[in-house]
Amino acid sequence: MIPTTAKKETLPITSLNKGDSGTVLSTAVSLSVQNSDILTKYKQYLQSCYNARALAQADKYLPTLDAPYINLAMIRRGQPYNPEQRDEFTRKTLHGGVDQILKSKTPINIEDLLTPEDSGRPVRFILVEGPPGIGKSTFAWEACRRWDEIESLRQYHTVVLLKLREKWVLNATQPSDLFRFPPKPELSTNIAEALNKSHGHNLLLVLDGFDEVSHSFHENSVVKSILCRQLLPECTIILTTRPVAKHILKSICQPRVDKHVEIIGFTEEERVRYITEVFFKEPELQVNFLKYMFHVPHIKSMMYIPLNCAIIAQVYYES
After folding, report:
1. By CB distance 3.0 to 4.6 Å, which of 28, 49, 218, 303 could disulfide with 309?
2. Who's near 121: CB < 8 A, 6+ residues apart?
3. How far apart are the first and last CA of the chain?
4. Whole-number Å distance between alpha carbons of 1 and 162
5. Is the distance from CB of 243 to CB of 99 less than 8 angstroms?
6. One matching Pfam family, short form (predicted)?
7. How far, in Å, CA of 76 to CA of 89, rounded?
8. What are the sequence ranges of the domains in the chain?
9. Along the chain (319 residues), what's the average pLDDT of each consecutive run of 10 residues?
10. Under 8 Å CB-to-CB from 68, ≥6 apart: which residues?
């Protein structure tokens, strides 16, 4: 969303006197309808933003696949166990790192991300991690884009994507700074008030890039207040980050993480498909690159990260 300066607009307040119950009820209904109308307009604006364009066209190194590949795995930590006893999925998706020792992974679809587990406890906080270039921002955008398509997402009346690296998000000191409405900037305060009145119920916040700002939260940060459940306590949060910043999150607010998910990148089959589609006009180059990839293990191992895959293919193509 484009940052704008919101002009504060207060909702009308009716004084309470004896015998005014009908007036109060009428006013309450009027305010409720007004809030509903404002949030509906805000929803329509957000959906138009998510559907208006493909993600970060200017950042694409090479043509992407027609369908986004966002492979997710639920991370379950428990007792250490022998690598030989790991299931095939876990073995295929381990790419090194000390914390892999205690990891067990289960594949999960984006459609099931917000579905409660067997305990039935509502999912209020999802931590999504992955190394640089793995597709965290692509995931965040795709989740918002499919707001009306995925049943578990349709339960939310408002879905807001906030890129934490944006200064206007990081420096926000009041809710209206976050919930911007460029078509009518003066309504930003009303939107924030409506969301705050419901304590964030039916609100999904997708906070992208915690690792880029984890050391930068100031004392009056609205984002920090939301993470610590001091503001909008009933909202659902999806937070993306690099693994290195997880410990900082715990030091800030120690959130109860309902689901811990990892973006695992390209499978071997998807690497082959990507190269096949990228070089489809150059069959000989396509065959030569695939031979090169399979004969140079350290290159192949790097290409599970989509960004690495694109850069390596680009360099090979240009050379």
Report:
1. 303
2. 258
3. 39
4. 8
5. yes
6. NACHT
7. 13
8. 69-263, 268-318
9. 37 36 39 72 93 54 52 62 49 47 70 83 93 91 92 94 93 93 92 95 96 81 93 97 87 87 87 89 92 92 90 88
10. 135, 138, 142
Structure tokens at 159: 């879905």
* Whole-number Å distance between alpha carbons of 107 and 40: 35
Cβ burial of 114 (10 Å; 0-12, 13-18, 19+) is buried
For 291, the enclosing helix (H) or strand (E) is helix 283-295
Distances (CA, A) of 64 to 55, 99, 163, 248, 278: 11, 31, 22, 33, 8
Tokens of 148: 């009306």
The verdict on pTM exceeding 0.70 is yes
Single-letter residue type at 69? Y
Handedness of CA 133, 139, 140, 144 (dihedral sign): positive
Q: What is the DSSP string of 254-268?
A: ----SEEEEE----H
Would you state the CATH architecture of domain 69-263? 3-Layer(aba) Sandwich (3.40)
